[in-house]
Amino acid sequence: MTLDKHQSLYKKLAIVYTVLILLLVTLPINGEDQFLGKLNDNYVLQIRYDYISHAVLFIPWIILVWWGWAIATTPKSKQLAVGVGGLSFAIFCEYLQLPLTYRTFNINDLLANSLGIGLGLLFLWLWEKAGMNTQKG
């Protein structure tokens, strides 16, 4: 099966995943006494678990966007379009929290979001290099 046959599914999943990310960055779920409030107190290899979760959250998003949309005609222009769009979305998600009194803008979260975009693009590049992509564009 090729990725082309599943493009509609990937597009729908990308939309649902986008809404999920927007909910996660706007709902009051990570305060001291909130559902995810303890993420800021946990560390993995001296890196706050919160930052790791930010990076991991954006990896599947960029992959679903890549597979869901035929954005450009050449692979290089698609990489550029998806990369710039992904970084723009990562930045938007962090700046969206500025007017919210129960959320805060954090440059480390922004860097972690961007790292997730970069790791997702790296995965896609390796996927293409390995010849596993049968989707055109």
Give a structural overview.
- With 137 residues, the protein is mainly α.
- It has one domain.
- It has four helices and two strands.
- A two-stranded antiparallel sheet has the order 1-2.
- Helix 3 packs antiparallel against helix 4 (107-129).
- The longest helix is centred in the C-terminal third of the chain and has 23 residues, at 107-129.
- It is globular, with a radius of gyration of 16 Å.
- The mean pLDDT is 82.
Which consecutive residue ranges, at least 5 long each, have pLDDT under 50? none
| Biggest sheet details | 2 strands, antiparallel
Element-by-element helix/strand order = HEEHHH
Structure classification: mainly alpha
- Order of strands across the widest beta sheet? 1-2
Q: What is the total tally of β strands?
A: 2
| Share of helix, binned | 55-70%
Q: What is the residue-mean pLDDT, rounded to a whole number? A: 82
- The backbone outline, from C-alpha atoms, is globular
- Total count of domains: 1
Straight-line distance between termini: 17 Å
Number of helices: 4
> Which strand-content bin applies to the residues?
under 5%
Radius of gyration: 16 Å
Key descriptive features of the protein:
3% strand, 61% helix, 2 strands, two-stranded antiparallel sheet, 137 residues, mainly alpha
In short:
By secondary structure, the protein is mostly helical. The protein has helices at 7-26, 49-68, 75-95, 107-129; strands at 43-44, 47-48. A two-stranded antiparallel sheet has the order 1-2.
